[in-house]
Amino acid sequence: MDTQVGNKFRLGKKIGGGSSGKIYKGTDIQTNEEVAIKLEDRRTDHPQIQRELKLYKILLGGTGIPHVRWYDVERDYNVLVMDLLGPSLEDLVNQCGGKLSLKSVLMLADQMIKRIEYVHCKSLLHRNIKPKNFLMGMGRHANKVYIIGFGHGKKFIDTNTHQHISHRENKSLKRTGRYAHCGREQGRRDDLESLGYVLMYLLRGSLTWEDLKGGTERQKYEKISEKKVSMPIEALCHGYPIEFASYFYYCRSLCFDDKPNYAYLREIFHGLFKRERFQFDYVFDWTTPKYQQSQRSKEPAHVPGPAHKPNNTLRLPIANARGHPVHGSYSRHLISFISTSTRCLCFTIEFDRSLMSQGEQSKKKSMIIHGEATCTERKREREREREREREREREREREREREEGEVTKWSKLIHDKLKHLE
């Protein structure tokens, strides 16, 4: 295989792959930026890259949607070049010992629901929700969740009738068996239910049906489907906060063409997050060592006490009592920080007597320099920042009130539906 693609990108090492092709790390020859290069054999029975490209164009500009840089056919391959992202959630859960903490899962869930909501608002279904298709960003976007893998995506609004696609039963269960729907035409509710399975997988480290085997792939997926249908939600979520069961109950209460209330689903997990008194600080399980190291690096350096006598001589511009500048060498000095909390630099310097007139010596032996002007300006800036934060908090409160109104309405609706099901 050539090491260059389209005379634009240099092919590097393989970093992933699946049924839809292989993914390599690459480099933009002109800018030297790192990219991800996906290669798909043109002779494959079910090509997906062109479908992915079409959907990425529809989703262009959304938060957590990678940018497509280039597409072409290169010899025997369909080639898709995109932004290089960080590790997948599958990689990270393995890195963290096979499961994630409740805090990490809840912080991820908030972003993952938003990603799926954005995909749905473009009239698209993902239909392949799994940990490998959620990646973290890189650099300043390292805390952002990205969604990829749209090779099985589909529009749920008919382009001719502009109506929701019709419901069909007895669809074959295929693709991502551990997380997929239960053998029916997929809708928005099924993307969300599959996300629920992903969240439980991240928490538990496994799903009860993932090791099921069959003589053929079809038989295997049929067994998975039967297991999912027969397993009560309480059994799936046993030993974990009730909010996860509530999430599944809501998803399963939706009709095929219902529009989910994504704000309600996020609020379910927000409530749990608050109850556990977690901080939404984006410190995930895999960043904890890095976070601790960064905290250690922020510790203030040791400031020598009076017993420490530096040998070097300082040269500083000083003003005398009349405000005229005086320059000289100061062999004896003592710096003592009076107030670090207000960030006002207050220190005393003892100067050689030779720098002062006798009159000045009799009046004053030490000189105190106060950064009063700087301190005042900083106080004003902090007050302005506090006011801006208060305004942001007021806006968040208004948004919460709007969401709570929606949540109350949907809580009553789901309660009525569950009561009817009982």
Automatic annotation (TrEMBL):
GO molecular function, one term: ATP binding
Protein name in the entry: Uncharacterized protein
InterPro entries named among the record's database cross-references: CK1_Ser-Thr_kinase (IPR050235), Kinase-like_dom_sf (IPR011009), Prot_kinase_dom (IPR000719), Protein_kinase_ATP_BS (IPR017441)
Family (UniProt): Belongs to the protein kinase superfamily. CK1 Ser/Thr protein kinase family. Casein kinase I subfamily.
UniProt cross-references to PANTHER family, sorted A to Z: CASEIN KINASE-RELATED
